[in-house]
Specification:
- It is globular and about 50 Å long.
- It has 2 domains: 146 residues, Fructose-1,6-Bisphosphatase, Chain A, domain 1; 109 residues, 3-Layer(aba) Sandwich (D-Maltodextrin-Binding Protein, domain 2).
- The protein has 8 helices and 14 strands.
- Helix 1 runs antiparallel to helix 2 and helix 6 packs parallel to helix 7.
- Helix content is 38%, strand content 27%.
- It is of the alpha+beta class.
Length: 265
Amino acid sequence: MTDSKGMLTVIATILKQAGKNIVMPAFHACIHASIKTDGSIVTETDLSCQCFIQSKLAKLDASIPFLGEEMSEAEQMACLQQSQGRYWCLDPLDGTSNFAAHFPVFSISLALIEQGIVQLACIYDPVRDELFTAVAQHGARLNGTLISASSGKHIHDAVGLVDFKRLAPGLATKLLLHPCYRSQRNIGSCALEWAWLAAGRGQFIIHGSEKLWDFAAGSLIASEAGCVVGDFNSAPLFPASTLSCSVLAASDPVIHASLKLQLDV
């Protein structure tokens, strides 16, 4: 645990440096975005942030492979398949569309996966200076203070985080027209949605296809805060063999069971 806590302190410092010295100055300046082959956007800040963090992690321990969002898919899959279960997983700027639109909701997300399981997680929100962290089997924290997901709510009182854009049309229509919950939001940063779920700022997440770097850190933080985490079939998100999967997470088992019935899976 001592080694894990020490490493977590170091990577938290790295993410804070990236947020304060790279992301926030760029956010207050003119932002230029370009379109990637998958239709998503990328900015110079995404690339600069990934380069900075990758170089810092290499100095920390050059033996640990690195998987970042701004690598090619071939490089990402090679890392996933050849890392022997140990690698860093980074989203250097989660919520790039928000960032490029000067909408202040985005984050930096980093996880360390060992033997296919997330062991360390760190999500930094540079706008609010909020640092969400977790070490496997040792709880989740916000700025060093233990946090837990909200529990005891009935599904009809629940507010969730739903990305309708990435759901099958039939399911999206069902959730819109016949919701079993009170209301839903989509803040445009998957990592922050996980972190906010862990901190009790909502009761569930439904997402049709999150990328590995979207959920790697957040899934551990949410799990350590007491959430039920998995895909639409209740299968665990790790070990991961692909770069994307569906996500169904809830603040407690009762809400999770209600959502599972709603999703009809």
